[in-house]
Structure formats: structure tokens, C-alpha cells
Amino acid sequence: MKTDTLFYNLFQLFPKLLFELIGADPSQSTKYEFSSREVKEVARRFDGLLIPNSNEFSDLIYFVEVQFQGKEDFYWRLFGEIAAYLAQYQPPNDCQAVAIFASRNLEPEFPAQYRYLRPQLRVVYLDEITKDENLPISLGIVKLILTSPEKVKERFPKLVEQVEQIHDRTLEQKILDFIETVLFYKFTNMSREEVAAMFSLDDIRGTKLYQELYEEAKVEGKAEGKAEGELLGEAKGKLEAIRGLLTLGLGVEQIAQALGVERSIVERVAGGEVVTPESFLRK
Questions:
Q1: pLDDT at 209
Q2: Given this model, what pLDDT does residue 160 score?
Q3: 3-146 CATH fold
Q4: Could you tell me where in the chain the CATH 3.40.1350 domains are found?
Q5: What's residue 221's pLDDT?
Q6: Per-residue three-class SS string for the chain
Q7: What is the pLDDT of residues 233-259, one digit of tens each?
């Protein structure tokens, strides 16, 4: 399972998740912006990077890395990348590293050479954090990621029930899309149709919530079409939908089928190509 991608998108969906994991006040998340800034020297991004909205030194930048496999050089790389980031961006804020391991046995020995940075590190073991059955939905999704395929069906209905209590249609749709993505990652030996049938995903899509969302999308599309032209408005809406679904971690084929667009269009957007509504229509 591509846990890096899943957790990167999960932090985007639930910025408060980090604070829930480290036992801090989740309401702090309103003071932060989730960022995907790249560290040029090492050409990679952190699994989570929360940057405070203020320039106060006491408001911490959180560098988050999630690890589901044992890596002896984990801490060497993490602190090396943090040092490279600080040198590149020179932020006014203090910082803290958060190392998140699927289980305690995956944590490597902390390098003695970095002992002076140990106070700046928080360590989280996901299997221990998610032992409780009564979890907020963000941690419930984390537990779903950790759950073996054999037991996923037991967890799924509870999560759907929690989603239905959110009363925010847009957020509900995003969370259900994310949960669906987790299921596809877990059952890679099955087709999308088989996974959808196993978890009654099509039935969930047919609920009143999804029907209302679909109707709202059509209304918004028509309004935009009147302003920019019917076809251009529809093309723009689909391009925005493609980018949003890619951010959630959905695959190219899934997106193409869901939106009724050619696979090549989705591949161009996924590859970073600038696709305009006009070029979308030309294909």
C-alpha cells in the first residue's frame, strides 16, 4: 500500500490529525496551513508539513514523516531534510519533528550524533494510538489503514456511520472518496467493481447525500457554463475535479471512469502538464 501518498492526503484532509496523534489540542489546526513545499537539495517532500500562519517563534513548524517499513537511516534522513529545509526557507518559527511509525518495532536506534535534537522530536506509534474503539473519524481512517484486509469489513460500517454525522456535504464526499481509495489500495488483487460490490460502494454513492451532491454539481456547472460558455464551463469543472481527485490519491483509470473523460487527459494533468479548458475540448 502506498502509505506515503495516503498519509500525505490524509493530513491535507484532516490538518487536526497531527495534533490528535501527538496528544495536543486539535483546535490548533486552525492556525496552520498544510504545505507541500519541496526541499530542493534532496528533491522530495515531507509526508506532512504544517506551517503556522504567524511569524511568532513560539508557533512551531511541524515536520511529519510516516514510516510503515523498517529503515535504519530514517532519523539520519529526516533531520538532514529538516536542516536542508531550514537553510532553504529560513523561517522565523521554531520547529518540531514528528516521527510516526506503524508500530514501535519499526523505530530504528536514534543516532547519538543527533542527541542535541532529541528534545525537538515527538514519536508516535499508530497501533498504540488507535487501540481504542471510540475514535474521531480521522483516527478511525488511520485505524482502517492499519487494519488487515480480513478485518476491514468490520471497521467500514462504523466509519460510514461517522461520515454521515458530519453534516458538511463537501467534506463528507471527500472523506468517502478517501476511504474508498484506502479500500482499493488494500485489495489490489481485486478489480474496482469487485471492491465496490464487497463494500456496497455503489449503494453508498446512491444515497440521498450523493444524489444531492450530484444535482448541486450540475447546477454549478450550468451556472458556470452560462458565464463562460456551456462546453468551456463543463471542461473547466472536470479539470478541477481531476486535480481534486488526484490530490485524494485516486488512480488515473478510476478518475477517467468516474468523470467520463479520456484517460489521456487525466494522465496529462497527473504529469503536471497545464491543460486548459480549450485544450481539454480539443483533446
A1: 47
A2: 82
A3: Trna Endonuclease; Chain: A, domain 1 (3.40.1350)
A4: 3-146
A5: 52
A6: CCHHHHHHHHHHHCCCHHHHHCCCCHHHHHHEEECCCCECCCCECCCEEEEECCCCCCCCEEEEEEECCCCCCHHHHHHHHHHHHHHHHCCCCCEEEEEEECCHHHCCCCCHHHHHHHHHEEEEEHHHHCCCCCCCHHHHHHHHHHCCHHHHHHHHHHHHHHHCCCCCHHHHHHHHHHHHHHHHHHCCCCCHHHHHHHCCHHHHHCCHHHHHHHHHHHHHHHHHHHHHCHHHHHHHHHHHHHHHHHHCCCCHHHHHHHHCCCHHHHHHHHCCCCCCHHHHHHC
A7: 677 777 877 877 776 666 777 777 767
Cα–Cα distance for residue pair 30/54, rounded to 1 Å: 12
Q: Are strands 48-52 and 95-101 parallel, antiparallel or unpaired?
A: unpaired
- Alpha carbon of 129 to those of 38, 62, 102, 269: distances in Å? 29, 19, 10, 37
pLDDT confidence of residue 126: 93
pLDDT over threshold 80, residue 207:
no
Task: Centre a 10 Å sphere on the Cβ of residue 78 and count the other Cβ atoms it contains.
Answer: 22
Please tell me which residue, 3 or 33, carries the higher pLDDT value.
Answer: 33
Cell of 212: 444531492
Beta bridge pairs of residue 33: 51
Q: What is the mean pLDDT of residues 144-156?
A: 86
Q: Phi/psi class of residue 244: alpha, beta or left (left: φ > 0; alpha: ψ in -120 to 50)? A: alpha
